[in-house]
Design goal:
The N and C termini lie far apart (42 Å). This protein is mainly alpha-helical and 196 residues long.
Length: 196
């Protein structure tokens, strides 16, 4: 939670570091958080939508559908086949017996709150030394997804921005650029053009 009258913008994680974090969390026995971080970076969903995921949604097919809580819009999400194998490993490690169960159940047998997830992520930032990420929250995962899609597009960056704008339900690509921090980087690059 941010301080009153302050602006806190979530930062993205570099892709390799994010994937490494998913593996490290799993190896340390933190299966649900490993899955949560993985879902965040592979699906680009808001945390409110991630918290509604069930094991059936993630394991029964190559994609799943949901209605976004915030926008009430229908989305179909394709599941990366390698990530789906990770989901299965988490499912097995947690000894889940009811595949219709929500994936992110706390020890109190209720779905984690968004606030609790953000507290847990702050702990992960400290424990795993994510020093390059200043403001780490659940929204960082969605931004990591967006940045990676944009960076993988390479020479088709504008097309990636159009797709991400639609996927994120932004009204135009200028908002998507600002959301991903690209606009700020472009503006700061102006200073690099100067000579002395």
């Amino acid at each position: 939670m941010s301080v009153k009258n302050s602006t806190t913008v979530a930062d993205y994680i570099e892709w390799d570091k994010a994937v490494n974090l998913v593996h490290r969390l799993f190896n340390d026995g933190d299966y649900r958080l490993s899955l949560l971080v993985g879902c965040g970076i592979f699906f680009g969903l808001r945390i409110s939508d991630i918290l509604q995921l069930t094991w059936d949604m993630l394991l029964s097919d190559k994609s799943f559908e949901l209605i976004e809580k915030k926008t009430k819009k229908h989305r179909e999400i394709r599941i990366n086949s390698n990530f789906q194998k990770h989901v299965q490993k988490c499912y097995d490690a947690l000894c889940i017996t009811d595949s219709s169960e929500k994936c992110f159940i706390s020890r109190k047998n209720s779905v984690y709150s968004i606030q609790r997830i953000n507290v847990l992520l702050k702990g992960i930032k400290a424990k795993y030394g994510l020093k390059s990420v200043k403001n780490f929250s659940s929204h960082s995962l969605r931004k990591t997804f967006g940045r990676h899609v944009y960076e993988k597009a390479d020479t088709n960056g504008e097309m990636a921005l159009v797709m991400l704008s639609e996927l994120f339900n932004h009204s135009n690509i200028a908002i998507t650029k600002r959301y991903l921090g690209l606009r700020k980087e472009e503006i700061l690059h102006c200073y690099d053009l100067l000579e002395f």
